Protein backbone atom coordinates (compact mmCIF):
# COMPACT_ATOMS: atom_id res chain seq x y z
CA UNK A 1 0.00 0.00 0.00
CA UNK A 2 1.30 3.40 -0.85
CA UNK A 3 1.78 5.74 2.05
CA UNK A 4 -0.04 8.92 1.30
CA UNK A 5 -1.03 11.73 3.58
CA UNK A 6 -0.32 11.70 6.43
CA UNK A 7 3.10 10.16 6.12
CA UNK A 8 3.87 9.00 9.62
CA UNK A 9 7.50 8.31 8.92
CA UNK A 10 8.15 11.97 8.33
CA UNK A 11 6.60 12.79 11.65
CA UNK A 12 8.87 10.49 13.66
CA UNK A 13 11.78 12.89 13.45
CA UNK A 14 14.55 10.28 13.49
CA UNK A 15 17.81 12.16 13.26
CA UNK A 16 20.60 9.68 13.87
CA UNK A 17 18.85 6.62 15.25
CA UNK A 18 20.99 6.67 18.36
CA UNK A 19 18.76 8.79 20.51
CA UNK A 20 17.49 6.32 23.12
CA UNK A 21 14.14 8.09 23.41
CA UNK A 22 13.57 7.56 19.69
CA UNK A 23 14.50 3.89 19.99
CA UNK A 24 12.18 3.56 22.93
CA UNK A 25 9.34 5.28 21.13
CA UNK A 26 9.67 2.98 18.12
CA UNK A 27 9.86 -0.14 20.23
CA UNK A 28 6.89 0.82 22.33
CA UNK A 29 4.85 1.78 19.30
CA UNK A 30 5.71 -1.47 17.52
CA UNK A 31 4.95 -3.55 20.59
CA UNK A 32 1.60 -1.86 21.00
CA UNK A 33 0.77 -2.38 17.34
CA UNK A 34 1.73 -6.07 17.38
CA UNK A 35 -0.29 -6.56 20.53
CA UNK A 36 -3.36 -4.99 18.95
CA UNK A 37 -2.86 -6.87 15.67
CA UNK A 38 -2.96 -10.18 17.54
CA UNK A 39 -6.44 -9.46 18.85
CA UNK A 40 -9.69 -10.14 17.03
CA UNK A 41 -10.58 -7.46 14.46
CA UNK A 42 -13.60 -6.36 16.49
CA UNK A 43 -11.51 -5.63 19.56
CA UNK A 44 -8.33 -4.42 17.92
CA UNK A 45 -7.39 -0.79 18.30
CA UNK A 46 -4.53 -0.45 15.84
CA UNK A 47 -3.24 3.06 16.19
CA UNK A 48 -0.22 5.31 16.53
CA UNK A 49 -0.32 8.52 18.56
CA UNK A 50 2.00 11.23 17.33
CA UNK A 51 2.95 14.68 18.43
CA UNK A 52 2.03 17.28 15.88
CA UNK A 53 3.87 20.49 15.54
CA UNK A 54 1.33 23.25 15.50
CA UNK A 55 -2.28 24.12 15.79
CA UNK A 56 -3.81 25.14 12.47
CA UNK A 57 -4.75 28.57 13.81
CA UNK A 58 -1.25 29.74 14.65
CA UNK A 59 0.12 29.88 11.15
CA UNK A 60 1.56 32.41 8.75
CA UNK A 61 2.55 32.58 5.12
CA UNK A 62 6.30 32.38 4.93
CA UNK A 63 7.31 35.34 2.77
CA UNK A 64 10.40 33.62 1.39
CA UNK A 65 8.81 30.47 0.03
CA UNK A 66 5.11 31.34 -0.08
CA UNK A 67 4.12 28.40 2.08
CA UNK A 68 1.65 28.19 4.92
CA UNK A 69 3.74 27.48 8.01
CA UNK A 70 3.55 27.42 11.79
CA UNK A 71 4.21 30.73 13.47
CA UNK A 72 4.77 29.39 16.96
CA UNK A 73 5.36 25.93 18.26
CA UNK A 74 2.24 24.50 19.81
CA UNK A 75 2.29 20.81 20.58
CA UNK A 76 -0.77 18.80 19.87
CA UNK A 77 -1.30 15.06 19.71
CA UNK A 78 -3.15 13.07 17.14
CA UNK A 79 -4.08 9.44 16.97
CA UNK A 80 -3.93 7.67 13.63
CA UNK A 81 -5.87 4.42 13.59
CA UNK A 82 -6.29 1.61 11.04
CA UNK A 83 -8.25 0.97 8.97
CA UNK A 84 -9.37 4.47 9.90
CA UNK A 85 -11.94 5.83 12.31
CA UNK A 86 -13.96 7.16 9.43
CA UNK A 87 -14.27 6.56 5.70
CA UNK A 88 -12.47 9.86 5.22
CA UNK A 89 -9.45 8.70 7.20
CA UNK A 90 -9.25 5.35 5.43
CA UNK A 91 -9.41 7.13 2.10
CA UNK A 92 -6.46 9.31 3.04
CA UNK A 93 -4.19 6.28 3.11
CA UNK A 94 -4.59 5.33 -0.52
CA UNK A 95 -2.87 7.08 -3.40
CA UNK A 96 -5.48 8.78 -5.47
CA UNK A 97 -4.17 11.49 -7.78
CA UNK A 98 -4.39 11.14 -11.55
CA UNK A 99 -2.27 12.66 -14.30
CA UNK A 100 -2.65 12.96 -18.06
CA UNK A 101 -0.02 14.42 -20.36
CA UNK A 102 3.57 14.12 -21.39
CA UNK A 103 6.33 14.08 -18.79
CA UNK A 104 9.50 12.15 -17.96
CA UNK A 105 10.39 11.14 -14.43
CA UNK A 106 14.17 11.07 -14.07
CA UNK A 107 15.92 9.38 -11.15
CA UNK A 108 19.73 9.25 -10.87
CA UNK A 109 20.06 10.40 -14.49
CA UNK A 110 17.85 7.55 -15.72
CA UNK A 111 14.44 8.00 -17.26
CA UNK A 112 12.21 6.03 -14.94
CA UNK A 113 8.90 6.92 -16.54
CA UNK A 114 8.37 8.32 -20.01
CA UNK A 115 4.68 9.21 -20.07
CA UNK A 116 3.20 9.95 -23.46
CA UNK A 117 0.17 12.11 -23.87
CA UNK A 118 -1.52 9.54 -26.08
CA UNK A 119 -1.60 6.88 -23.38
CA UNK A 120 -4.32 8.74 -21.48
CA UNK A 121 -4.56 9.13 -17.75
CA UNK A 122 -2.76 7.19 -15.06
CA UNK A 123 -2.14 7.24 -11.32
CA UNK A 124 0.32 9.84 -10.15
CA UNK A 125 3.73 8.18 -9.82
CA UNK A 126 5.57 8.11 -6.52
CA UNK A 127 8.45 10.59 -6.51
CA UNK A 128 11.49 10.58 -4.27
CA UNK A 129 13.84 13.29 -3.10
CA UNK A 130 16.17 14.19 -5.91
CA UNK A 131 13.81 13.06 -8.66
CA UNK A 132 13.42 15.39 -11.59
CA UNK A 133 10.38 15.71 -13.76
CA UNK A 134 11.06 16.89 -17.28
CA UNK A 135 8.09 18.83 -18.66
CA UNK A 136 10.09 20.96 -21.07
CA UNK A 137 7.74 20.22 -23.97
CA UNK A 138 4.52 21.36 -22.38
CA UNK A 139 2.98 24.84 -22.08
CA UNK A 140 0.68 24.47 -19.11
CA UNK A 141 -0.23 22.38 -16.09
CA UNK A 142 -3.88 22.33 -15.11
CA UNK A 143 -4.69 21.27 -11.55
CA UNK A 144 -8.31 20.12 -11.44
CA UNK A 145 -10.33 19.75 -8.25
CA UNK A 146 -12.80 17.17 -9.46
CA UNK A 147 -12.14 13.72 -10.86
CA UNK A 148 -15.24 13.83 -13.11
CA UNK A 149 -14.05 17.06 -14.71
CA UNK A 150 -10.57 15.56 -15.17
CA UNK A 151 -12.02 12.47 -16.91
CA UNK A 152 -14.21 14.57 -19.15
CA UNK A 153 -11.16 16.53 -20.34
CA UNK A 154 -8.95 13.43 -20.54
CA UNK A 155 -11.53 11.64 -22.72
CA UNK A 156 -11.15 14.28 -25.40
CA UNK A 157 -7.36 14.43 -24.85
CA UNK A 158 -7.53 18.08 -23.92
CA UNK A 159 -3.86 17.85 -22.87
CA UNK A 160 -2.91 17.61 -26.56
CA UNK A 161 -5.72 19.71 -28.05
CA UNK A 162 -5.75 22.91 -26.01
CA UNK A 163 -5.32 26.18 -27.90
CA UNK A 164 -2.53 27.04 -25.47
CA UNK A 165 -0.54 24.01 -26.70
CA UNK A 166 0.35 20.72 -25.06
CA UNK A 167 -0.19 20.44 -21.36
CA UNK A 168 -0.54 18.23 -18.33
CA UNK A 169 -3.70 17.71 -16.33
CA UNK A 170 -3.62 16.61 -12.72
CA UNK A 171 -6.39 15.90 -10.24
CA UNK A 172 -6.04 15.12 -6.54
CA UNK A 173 -9.76 14.17 -6.42
CA UNK A 174 -10.74 16.85 -3.95
CA UNK A 175 -8.28 17.79 -1.24
CA UNK A 176 -4.93 16.53 -2.58
CA UNK A 177 -2.78 13.89 -0.90
CA UNK A 178 0.97 14.24 -0.35
CA UNK A 179 1.85 12.26 -3.47
CA UNK A 180 -0.16 14.54 -5.73
CA UNK A 181 1.33 17.63 -4.12
CA UNK A 182 4.86 16.19 -4.21
CA UNK A 183 4.48 15.39 -7.90
CA UNK A 184 3.20 18.88 -8.72
CA UNK A 185 5.95 20.50 -6.67
CA UNK A 186 8.58 18.44 -8.51
CA UNK A 187 7.15 19.68 -11.82
CA UNK A 188 7.11 23.25 -10.52
CA UNK A 189 10.74 22.94 -9.34
CA UNK A 190 11.84 21.64 -12.73
CA UNK A 191 10.24 24.68 -14.36
CA UNK A 192 12.34 27.02 -12.22
CA UNK A 193 15.42 25.79 -14.08
CA UNK A 194 13.75 26.43 -17.39
CA UNK A 195 14.54 29.92 -18.59
CA UNK A 196 12.43 30.47 -21.70
CA UNK A 197 8.65 30.78 -21.37
CA UNK A 198 8.05 28.43 -18.48
CA UNK A 199 4.70 26.61 -18.56
CA UNK A 200 1.85 28.14 -16.58
CA UNK A 201 0.31 26.39 -13.60
CA UNK A 202 -3.45 26.85 -13.30
CA UNK A 203 -6.05 25.73 -10.77
CA UNK A 204 -9.61 24.86 -11.82
CA UNK A 205 -11.98 24.36 -8.90
CA UNK A 206 -15.63 24.89 -8.06
CA UNK A 207 -16.66 28.43 -7.21
CA UNK A 208 -17.48 27.51 -3.63
CA UNK A 209 -15.64 27.55 -0.28
CA UNK A 210 -14.33 24.00 -0.70
CA UNK A 211 -13.00 24.74 -4.18
CA UNK A 212 -11.21 27.81 -2.85
CA UNK A 213 -9.81 25.87 0.13
CA UNK A 214 -8.56 23.12 -2.20
CA UNK A 215 -6.84 25.67 -4.41
CA UNK A 216 -5.25 27.14 -1.29
CA UNK A 217 -4.05 23.68 -0.24
CA UNK A 218 -2.26 23.25 -3.56
CA UNK A 219 -0.74 26.72 -3.57
CA UNK A 220 0.09 27.36 0.09
CA UNK A 221 -0.42 24.02 1.81
CA UNK A 222 -2.78 22.60 4.37
CA UNK A 223 -3.26 23.90 7.89
CA UNK A 224 -3.18 20.31 9.17
CA UNK A 225 0.40 19.65 8.01
CA UNK A 226 2.19 22.95 8.39
CA UNK A 227 5.69 21.49 8.58
CA UNK A 228 5.26 19.84 5.16
CA UNK A 229 4.11 22.93 3.31
CA UNK A 230 7.50 24.49 2.63
CA UNK A 231 8.45 21.56 0.41
CA UNK A 232 5.00 21.08 -1.15
CA UNK A 233 3.63 24.55 -1.85
CA UNK A 234 3.32 25.80 -5.44
CA UNK A 235 3.60 29.60 -5.34
CA UNK A 236 3.33 29.85 -9.14
CA UNK A 237 -0.18 28.39 -9.17
CA UNK A 238 -2.67 30.76 -10.83
CA UNK A 239 -6.42 30.86 -10.38
CA UNK A 240 -8.13 29.89 -13.65
CA UNK A 241 -11.61 29.63 -12.14
CA UNK A 242 -14.35 29.16 -11.43
CA UNK A 243 -15.47 32.52 -10.10
CA UNK A 244 -19.11 33.05 -9.28
CA UNK A 245 -18.80 36.36 -11.08
CA UNK A 246 -17.74 34.53 -14.29
CA UNK A 247 -21.12 32.88 -14.39
CA UNK A 248 -23.18 35.93 -13.54
CA UNK A 249 -21.50 37.73 -16.41
CA UNK A 250 -22.85 35.25 -18.99
CA UNK A 251 -26.34 34.32 -17.75
CA UNK A 252 -27.71 34.47 -21.29
CA UNK A 253 -25.76 31.35 -22.15
CA UNK A 254 -26.10 29.45 -18.92
CA UNK A 255 -29.30 30.71 -17.35
CA UNK A 256 -29.62 31.89 -13.79
CA UNK A 257 -30.43 28.34 -12.69
CA UNK A 258 -26.76 27.45 -13.11
CA UNK A 259 -26.09 29.09 -9.78
CA UNK A 260 -26.74 27.51 -6.39
CA UNK A 261 -27.50 29.14 -3.05
CA UNK A 262 -24.93 28.75 -0.32
CA UNK A 263 -25.90 26.36 2.44
CA UNK A 264 -25.58 27.35 6.06
CA UNK A 265 -22.46 25.19 6.23
CA UNK A 266 -20.98 26.94 3.20
CA UNK A 267 -21.45 30.31 4.89
CA UNK A 268 -19.90 29.02 8.12
CA UNK A 269 -16.98 27.56 6.21
CA UNK A 270 -16.35 30.86 4.40
CA UNK A 271 -16.43 32.80 7.66
CA UNK A 272 -13.99 30.35 9.25
CA UNK A 273 -11.66 30.64 6.24
CA UNK A 274 -11.72 34.45 6.38
CA UNK A 275 -11.15 34.42 10.13
CA UNK A 276 -8.51 31.75 10.54
CA UNK A 277 -6.22 31.55 7.54
CA UNK A 278 -3.60 34.15 6.67
CA UNK A 279 -4.19 33.25 3.01
CA UNK A 280 -7.46 35.19 3.18
CA UNK A 281 -6.31 38.01 5.49
CA UNK A 282 -7.08 41.56 4.34
CA UNK A 283 -3.34 42.27 4.11
CA UNK A 284 -2.65 38.74 2.85
CA UNK A 285 -1.30 37.51 -0.48
CA UNK A 286 -4.63 36.90 -2.21
CA UNK A 287 -7.00 39.87 -2.04
CA UNK A 288 -8.90 38.49 -5.05
CA UNK A 289 -9.55 35.22 -3.24
CA UNK A 290 -10.78 37.13 -0.19
CA UNK A 291 -13.04 39.30 -2.32
CA UNK A 292 -14.46 36.24 -4.07
CA UNK A 293 -15.42 34.59 -0.77
CA UNK A 294 -17.07 37.83 0.34
CA UNK A 295 -18.95 38.19 -2.95
CA UNK A 296 -20.26 34.66 -2.45
CA UNK A 297 -21.57 35.71 0.97
CA UNK A 298 -23.13 38.92 -0.34
CA UNK A 299 -24.79 37.22 -3.31
CA UNK A 300 -25.40 33.99 -1.34
CA UNK A 301 -24.27 32.06 -4.39
CA UNK A 302 -21.87 29.37 -5.51
CA UNK A 303 -21.17 27.73 -8.86
CA UNK A 304 -19.96 24.27 -9.84
CA UNK A 305 -17.55 23.69 -12.72
CA UNK A 306 -20.00 21.30 -14.38
CA UNK A 307 -22.18 24.22 -15.42
CA UNK A 308 -19.49 25.17 -17.93
CA UNK A 309 -20.33 22.02 -19.90
CA UNK A 310 -23.23 23.98 -21.34
CA UNK A 311 -21.42 27.16 -22.29
CA UNK A 312 -20.24 28.09 -25.76
CA UNK A 313 -17.62 25.60 -26.91
CA UNK A 314 -18.19 23.58 -23.75
CA UNK A 315 -15.80 23.30 -20.84
CA UNK A 316 -12.78 23.08 -23.17
CA UNK A 317 -13.84 26.23 -25.01
CA UNK A 318 -14.10 28.08 -21.73
CA UNK A 319 -10.67 26.87 -20.57
CA UNK A 320 -9.15 27.85 -23.94
CA UNK A 321 -10.52 31.37 -23.64
CA UNK A 322 -9.55 31.71 -20.00
CA UNK A 323 -5.98 30.50 -20.51
CA UNK A 324 -5.63 32.90 -23.41
CA UNK A 325 -6.83 35.77 -21.21
CA UNK A 326 -4.37 34.95 -18.43
CA UNK A 327 -1.36 34.48 -20.73
CA UNK B 1 -35.60 64.20 -21.75
CA UNK B 2 -32.17 63.05 -20.79
CA UNK B 3 -30.04 64.52 -18.07
CA UNK B 4 -26.33 64.83 -17.85
CA UNK B 5 -24.16 63.99 -14.90
CA UNK B 6 -20.50 64.82 -15.03
CA UNK B 7 -17.71 63.07 -13.21
CA UNK B 8 -16.54 65.28 -10.36
CA UNK B 9 -13.59 63.23 -9.21
CA UNK B 10 -13.11 60.10 -7.24
CA UNK B 11 -11.48 58.57 -4.22
CA UNK B 12 -9.32 56.08 -6.09
CA UNK B 13 -8.60 52.77 -4.42
CA UNK B 14 -10.33 53.98 -1.28
CA UNK B 15 -10.31 50.34 -0.15
CA UNK B 16 -8.08 47.41 -1.11
CA UNK B 17 -11.07 45.12 -1.69
CA UNK B 18 -14.59 45.54 -3.12
CA UNK B 19 -16.57 48.36 -1.53
CA UNK B 20 -19.88 46.81 -0.54
CA UNK B 21 -21.72 49.68 1.12
CA UNK B 22 -21.96 53.48 1.27
CA UNK B 23 -23.67 55.77 3.76
CA UNK B 24 -24.17 59.50 3.33
CA UNK B 25 -24.38 62.34 5.85
CA UNK B 26 -24.65 66.05 5.08
CA UNK B 27 -20.89 66.49 4.87
CA UNK B 28 -19.41 63.01 4.57
CA UNK B 29 -19.55 59.69 2.83
CA UNK B 30 -18.78 56.53 4.80
CA UNK B 31 -17.75 53.35 3.02
CA UNK B 32 -17.19 49.75 4.06
CA UNK B 33 -15.57 46.95 2.15
CA UNK B 34 -14.04 43.49 2.27
CA UNK B 35 -11.09 45.06 4.09
CA UNK B 36 -11.35 45.74 7.79
CA UNK B 37 -11.65 49.54 7.96
CA UNK B 38 -14.43 52.08 7.57
CA UNK B 39 -13.33 55.05 5.45
CA UNK B 40 -14.77 58.52 5.84
CA UNK B 41 -14.42 61.00 2.96
CA UNK B 42 -15.52 64.62 3.01
CA UNK B 43 -18.09 65.58 0.38
CA UNK B 44 -17.82 69.32 1.02
CA UNK B 45 -14.29 69.64 -0.39
CA UNK B 46 -13.93 69.56 -4.14
CA UNK B 47 -11.40 66.72 -4.13
CA UNK B 48 -13.26 64.50 -1.64
CA UNK B 49 -10.34 63.97 0.79
CA UNK B 50 -10.12 61.07 3.22
CA UNK B 51 -10.83 62.57 6.64
CA UNK B 52 -10.86 59.46 8.81
CA UNK B 53 -10.08 55.76 8.62
CA UNK B 54 -11.55 53.57 11.34
CA UNK B 55 -9.11 50.68 11.15
CA UNK B 56 -9.96 47.20 12.33
CA UNK B 57 -13.68 47.99 12.53
CA UNK B 58 -14.62 44.53 11.21
CA UNK B 59 -11.69 42.12 10.89
CA UNK B 60 -13.11 40.05 8.05
CA UNK B 61 -14.87 42.88 6.30
CA UNK B 62 -18.17 44.75 6.43
CA UNK B 63 -21.10 44.43 4.02
CA UNK B 64 -23.59 47.04 5.30
CA UNK B 65 -23.34 50.53 6.76
CA UNK B 66 -26.28 52.84 7.50
CA UNK B 67 -26.51 56.32 9.03
CA UNK B 68 -29.40 58.30 10.52
CA UNK B 69 -30.75 61.54 9.06
CA UNK B 70 -28.56 64.06 10.86
CA UNK B 71 -25.43 61.95 10.56
CA UNK B 72 -24.82 61.46 14.27
CA UNK B 73 -25.00 57.67 14.31
CA UNK B 74 -23.86 54.84 12.08
CA UNK B 75 -24.48 51.09 12.37
CA UNK B 76 -22.38 48.50 10.56
CA UNK B 77 -22.92 44.80 9.88
CA UNK B 78 -19.76 42.75 9.39
CA UNK B 79 -19.07 39.44 7.64
CA UNK B 80 -18.27 38.04 11.08
CA UNK B 81 -21.96 38.52 11.95
CA UNK B 82 -21.28 41.39 14.35
CA UNK B 83 -23.39 44.53 14.48
CA UNK B 84 -21.49 47.63 15.65
CA UNK B 85 -22.52 51.18 16.50
CA UNK B 86 -20.58 54.39 15.83
CA UNK B 87 -21.25 57.97 16.83
CA UNK B 88 -20.09 61.24 15.31
CA UNK B 89 -19.00 64.37 17.15
CA UNK B 90 -17.80 67.39 15.18
CA UNK B 91 -17.19 65.29 12.09
CA UNK B 92 -15.16 62.65 13.91
CA UNK B 93 -16.44 59.09 14.28
CA UNK B 94 -15.82 56.87 17.30
CA UNK B 95 -17.01 53.47 18.43
CA UNK B 96 -20.21 53.56 20.49
CA UNK B 97 -19.15 50.82 22.87
CA UNK B 98 -22.29 50.80 24.97
CA UNK B 99 -24.67 50.49 22.05
CA UNK B 100 -22.41 47.90 20.39
CA UNK B 101 -22.53 45.86 23.61
CA UNK B 102 -26.32 46.29 23.68
CA UNK B 103 -26.51 44.85 20.19
CA UNK B 104 -24.37 41.79 20.99
CA UNK B 105 -26.09 38.77 19.58
CA UNK B 106 -28.38 40.86 17.40
CA UNK B 107 -28.85 38.75 14.29
CA UNK B 108 -29.10 40.57 10.97
CA UNK B 109 -27.66 40.42 7.48
CA UNK B 110 -29.07 43.58 5.89
CA UNK B 111 -29.84 46.59 8.12
CA UNK B 112 -31.70 49.92 7.99
CA UNK B 113 -31.89 52.75 10.51
CA UNK B 114 -34.77 55.16 11.08
CA UNK B 115 -34.41 58.82 10.09
CA UNK B 116 -34.18 59.87 13.78
CA UNK B 117 -31.68 57.12 14.54
CA UNK B 118 -33.82 55.52 17.24
CA UNK B 119 -34.78 52.29 15.49
CA UNK B 120 -32.63 49.71 13.77
CA UNK B 121 -34.29 47.17 11.50
CA UNK B 122 -32.56 44.04 10.25
CA UNK B 123 -33.38 40.98 8.19
CA UNK B 124 -31.61 37.68 8.84
CA UNK B 125 -30.30 34.97 6.56
CA UNK B 126 -33.38 32.99 7.59
CA UNK B 127 -35.67 35.81 6.48
CA UNK B 128 -36.61 36.94 10.00
CA UNK B 129 -37.19 40.68 10.45
CA UNK B 130 -36.18 42.31 13.73
CA UNK B 131 -36.44 45.86 15.06
CA UNK B 132 -34.35 47.17 17.92
CA UNK B 133 -34.97 50.33 19.95
CA UNK B 134 -31.57 52.01 20.21
CA UNK B 135 -32.91 54.50 22.76
CA UNK B 136 -33.86 51.62 25.08
CA UNK B 137 -30.56 49.73 25.34
CA UNK B 138 -31.03 48.03 21.99
CA UNK B 139 -34.11 46.12 23.14
CA UNK B 140 -35.70 44.06 20.39
CA UNK B 141 -39.21 45.40 19.98
CA UNK B 142 -40.34 43.54 16.87
CA UNK B 143 -39.77 40.08 15.48
CA UNK B 144 -41.52 39.12 12.26
CA UNK B 145 -41.39 35.73 10.60
CA UNK B 146 -41.40 35.36 6.84
CA UNK B 147 -41.17 32.23 4.73
CA UNK B 148 -37.52 31.65 5.58
CA UNK B 149 -35.85 32.84 2.40
CA UNK B 150 -32.53 34.69 2.77
CA UNK B 151 -33.13 38.37 3.54
CA UNK B 152 -30.91 40.31 1.15
CA UNK B 153 -32.14 43.88 1.79
CA UNK B 154 -34.32 45.99 4.08
CA UNK B 155 -35.54 49.57 4.34
CA UNK B 156 -37.48 51.72 6.82
CA UNK B 157 -39.86 54.29 5.39
CA UNK B 158 -38.85 57.91 6.08
CA UNK B 159 -42.14 58.51 7.92
CA UNK B 160 -41.30 55.59 10.20
CA UNK B 161 -44.52 53.72 9.50
CA UNK B 162 -43.32 50.85 7.30
CA UNK B 163 -40.57 48.27 6.96
CA UNK B 164 -39.89 46.53 3.65
CA UNK B 165 -37.64 43.53 3.11
CA UNK B 166 -36.45 41.80 -0.06
CA UNK B 167 -35.59 38.10 -0.24
CA UNK B 168 -33.69 35.60 -2.28
CA UNK B 169 -36.87 33.84 -3.45
CA UNK B 170 -38.14 37.08 -5.00
CA UNK B 171 -40.50 37.95 -2.16
CA UNK B 172 -40.97 41.53 -0.98
CA UNK B 173 -42.73 42.07 2.35
CA UNK B 174 -44.11 45.24 3.90
CA UNK B 175 -44.85 45.44 7.64
CA UNK B 176 -46.33 48.30 9.61
CA UNK B 177 -44.11 49.32 12.51
CA UNK B 178 -47.16 50.20 14.61
CA UNK B 179 -48.89 46.84 14.66
CA UNK B 180 -46.30 44.55 13.12
CA UNK B 181 -48.91 43.39 10.65
CA UNK B 182 -48.37 42.75 6.99
CA UNK B 183 -51.00 44.84 5.14
CA UNK B 184 -50.41 42.97 1.87
CA UNK B 185 -47.86 40.86 0.10
CA UNK B 186 -46.28 42.24 -3.01
CA UNK B 187 -46.08 40.28 -6.22
CA UNK B 188 -44.07 40.73 -9.35
CA UNK B 189 -40.52 39.49 -8.83
CA UNK B 190 -39.52 35.84 -9.10
CA UNK B 191 -35.73 36.11 -8.97
CA UNK B 192 -33.67 37.23 -5.97
CA UNK B 193 -34.42 40.78 -4.81
CA UNK B 194 -31.24 42.67 -3.92
CA UNK B 195 -32.51 46.19 -3.13
CA UNK B 196 -35.62 47.82 -1.67
CA UNK B 197 -36.01 51.56 -1.08
CA UNK B 198 -38.88 53.80 0.08
CA UNK B 199 -39.39 57.14 -1.63
CA UNK B 200 -38.85 60.27 0.54
CA UNK B 201 -42.61 60.67 1.10
CA UNK B 202 -42.94 56.95 1.84
CA UNK B 203 -45.63 56.58 -0.85
CA UNK B 204 -43.62 54.38 -3.21
CA UNK B 205 -41.48 51.33 -2.61
CA UNK B 206 -38.93 50.46 -5.29
CA UNK B 207 -37.62 46.88 -5.47
CA UNK B 208 -35.10 45.30 -7.84
CA UNK B 209 -32.64 42.45 -8.23
CA UNK B 210 -31.74 39.59 -10.54
CA UNK B 211 -34.84 40.17 -12.72
CA UNK B 212 -33.06 43.33 -13.96
CA UNK B 213 -36.32 45.25 -13.61
CA UNK B 214 -37.19 47.86 -11.00
CA UNK B 215 -40.74 47.44 -9.73
CA UNK B 216 -42.51 50.40 -8.12
CA UNK B 217 -45.29 49.68 -5.62
CA UNK B 218 -47.87 52.01 -4.11
CA UNK B 219 -47.33 51.60 -0.38
CA UNK B 220 -50.96 52.38 0.48
CA UNK B 221 -52.48 49.74 -1.80
CA UNK B 222 -49.66 47.34 -2.62
CA UNK B 223 -50.46 47.78 -6.32
CA UNK B 224 -47.69 47.86 -8.89
CA UNK B 225 -47.30 51.36 -10.30
CA UNK B 226 -44.62 50.73 -12.89
CA UNK B 227 -41.84 48.49 -14.11
CA UNK B 228 -38.62 50.21 -15.07
CA UNK B 229 -36.63 48.10 -17.49
CA UNK B 230 -33.32 48.93 -19.12
CA UNK B 231 -30.64 47.29 -17.01
CA UNK B 232 -29.07 44.25 -18.66
CA UNK B 233 -27.53 42.82 -15.48
CA UNK B 234 -28.59 42.16 -11.91
CA UNK B 235 -29.54 45.30 -10.00
CA UNK B 236 -27.62 45.65 -6.74
CA UNK B 237 -28.73 48.95 -5.19
CA UNK B 238 -31.43 51.65 -5.30
CA UNK B 239 -31.42 55.23 -3.96
CA UNK B 240 -34.04 58.02 -4.11
CA UNK B 241 -33.12 61.67 -4.63
CA UNK B 242 -34.11 64.13 -1.88
CA UNK B 243 -37.20 65.30 -3.70
CA UNK B 244 -38.24 61.85 -4.91
CA UNK B 245 -38.05 63.02 -8.52
CA UNK B 246 -35.26 60.63 -9.44
CA UNK B 247 -34.31 57.07 -8.62
CA UNK B 248 -30.72 55.85 -8.90
CA UNK B 249 -29.86 52.20 -9.59
CA UNK B 250 -26.58 50.31 -9.90
CA UNK B 251 -25.92 46.93 -11.44
CA UNK B 252 -23.56 44.01 -11.70
CA UNK B 253 -22.15 45.04 -15.11
CA UNK B 254 -20.91 48.39 -13.80
CA UNK B 255 -23.82 50.47 -15.12
CA UNK B 256 -25.51 53.17 -13.07
CA UNK B 257 -28.86 54.57 -14.20
CA UNK B 258 -30.96 57.57 -13.21
CA UNK B 259 -34.75 57.19 -13.66
CA UNK B 260 -37.27 60.03 -13.82
CA UNK B 261 -40.37 59.43 -11.74
CA UNK B 262 -42.35 61.85 -13.86
CA UNK B 263 -41.80 59.98 -17.11
CA UNK B 264 -40.92 56.57 -15.59
CA UNK B 265 -37.99 56.45 -17.97
CA UNK B 266 -34.23 56.23 -17.75
CA UNK B 267 -32.71 59.69 -18.17
CA UNK B 268 -29.01 58.94 -17.71
CA UNK B 269 -26.71 55.91 -17.84
CA UNK B 270 -23.14 55.81 -16.62
CA UNK B 271 -20.66 53.01 -17.23
CA UNK B 272 -17.24 53.99 -16.02
CA UNK B 273 -16.38 50.48 -14.98
CA UNK B 274 -17.29 46.98 -16.17
CA UNK B 275 -17.14 45.69 -12.63
CA UNK B 276 -20.03 45.34 -10.22
CA UNK B 277 -21.24 48.59 -8.64
CA UNK B 278 -22.34 47.27 -5.26
CA UNK B 279 -23.77 50.58 -4.12
CA UNK B 280 -24.81 53.98 -5.51
CA UNK B 281 -26.26 56.80 -3.42
CA UNK B 282 -27.44 60.36 -3.94
CA UNK B 283 -25.36 63.05 -2.26
CA UNK B 284 -26.81 66.07 -0.45
CA UNK B 285 -27.83 68.84 -2.84
CA UNK B 286 -25.34 71.64 -3.36
CA UNK B 287 -27.52 74.61 -4.19
CA UNK B 288 -29.91 73.21 -6.77
CA UNK B 289 -27.61 70.64 -8.29
CA UNK B 290 -27.89 67.02 -7.44
CA UNK B 291 -25.10 64.49 -7.43
CA UNK B 292 -24.40 60.92 -6.54
CA UNK B 293 -21.58 58.58 -5.53
CA UNK B 294 -20.90 55.03 -6.75
CA UNK B 295 -18.64 52.28 -5.44
CA UNK B 296 -18.03 48.58 -5.93
CA UNK B 297 -15.64 45.98 -7.24
CA UNK B 298 -13.24 48.58 -8.70
CA UNK B 299 -12.53 49.68 -5.11
CA UNK B 300 -12.89 53.40 -5.78
CA UNK B 301 -15.66 55.85 -4.95
CA UNK B 302 -16.72 57.92 -7.95
CA UNK B 303 -18.59 61.22 -7.62
CA UNK B 304 -20.98 62.74 -10.16
CA UNK B 305 -22.78 66.08 -10.34
CA UNK B 306 -25.64 67.18 -12.54
CA UNK B 307 -24.51 69.30 -15.47
CA UNK B 308 -26.13 72.73 -15.17
CA UNK B 309 -26.75 75.57 -17.62
TrEMBL record, chain A:
GO terms for cellular component: nuclear chromosome. GO terms for molecular function: DNA binding; DNA topoisomerase type II (double strand cut, ATP-hydrolyzing) activity. InterPro entries: Spo11/TopoVI_A, Spo11/TopoVI_A_sf, TOPRIM_Topo6A/Spo11. It comes from the Eukaryota. GO terms for biological process: meiotic DNA double-strand break formation; meiotic DNA double-strand break processing; reciprocal meiotic recombination. SUPFAM superfamilies: DNA topoisomerase IV, alpha subunit. Pfam families: TOP6A-Spo11_Toprim. Gene3D superfamilies: 3.40.1360.10. This is Topoisomerase 6 subunit A/Spo11 TOPRIM domain-containing protein. It comes from Penicillium egyptiacum. The lineage of its organism: Eukaryota, Fungi, Dikarya, Ascomycota, Pezizomycotina.
UniProtKB/TrEMBL annotation, chain B:
Pfam families: WD40. WD repeats lie at residues 186-227, 228-269. The keyword Phosphoprotein does not apply. InterPro entries: SKI8 (IPR051510), WD40/YVTN_repeat-like_dom_sf (IPR015943), WD40_repeat_dom_sf (IPR036322), WD40_rpt (IPR001680). GO terms for cellular component: nucleus; protein-containing complex. Keywords: Repeat, WD repeat. This is Meiotic recombination protein Ski8/Rec14. It comes from Penicillium egyptiacum.
